[in-house]
Amino acid sequence: NNPPNKWKRVLLKISGEALAGDCTQNIDPKVTMSIAREVASVIKLGIEIAIVVGGGNIFRGASWEGCSGLDRSSADYIGMLATVMNAMFLQATMESIGIPTRVQTAFLMSEVAEPYIRRRAVRHLEKGRVVIFAAGTGNPFFTTDTAAALRCAEINAEVLLKATNVDGVYDEDPKCNANAHLLNTIDYHDVTSKDLSVMDMTAITLCQENDIPVVVFNLTKPGNIAKAIVGERVGTLISR
Ligand code: UDP
């Protein structure tokens, strides 16, 4: 007699940085395993889970622009390829503990993953598979946060759960001000007007325009991913 789930379908955004954990390699298998275990603990409740992975642990386009003649677009495509590596690694980890998982890429890489097909992604979710969206939006000059907002809107997920290394959104930058307060809730307008660096402007605006609530929370705290997915209070809720 469990209470009805708060969310039926969620989109979880995991940054590349988070996947690196404290590992000197780019990916920490302990982190991917803890994500997989938390997903396993809630998927049996029937909540549909889609994931967007970042790539910053391996390659960020903007920081390589100009290096060895790399233009921004080529650098960004390399960044998108990095997200595919993370997605495949996470898929392997999830499947190793029995979670059926599909990776869909925003550009064709048909030997390693399915292409992104919205209706097919939704079908996978309905069948209880976790769908990992890789290669961002497929376009340079965007971020995987924007990809997360976009996919969230496309598949009609009810919430974007942004897993980060900080506890949520603060009223000021906690690195600069020790008295900064963690906020329980904040509206989109305050995030953009106060320039609180939660997500890039394109991503947050897309959420605002489509009325997608965003939960920003710390994935390094055990249990937080599962809590966020079932809709327990965690981190900061950004909404209207
Ligand atoms: N990227 C891109 N278009 C997208 C998503 C990502 O060009 O739609 C590139 C961009 O170079 C970015 C890199 O992929 O720096 C890795 O993604 P991101 O920085 O968003 O990863 P995260 O910060 O979440 O680890």
UniProtKB/TrEMBL annotation:
Biological pathway: Pyrimidine metabolism; CTP biosynthesis via de novo pathway; UDP from UMP (UMPK route): step 1/1
EC number per UniProt: 2.7.4.22
Record field: transmembrane: none
Keywords: ATP-binding, Kinase, Nucleotide-binding, Pyrimidine biosynthesis, Transferase
GO molecular function ontology, one term from the record: UMP kinase activity
GO biological process, one term: 'de novo' CTP biosynthetic process
Domain of life of the organism encoding this protein: Eukaryota
Keyword RNA-binding: no
Domain Aspartate/glutamate/uridylate kinase stretches: 8-218
Keyword Membrane listed: no
Family: Belongs to the UMP kinase family.
Protein name (database record): UMP kinase
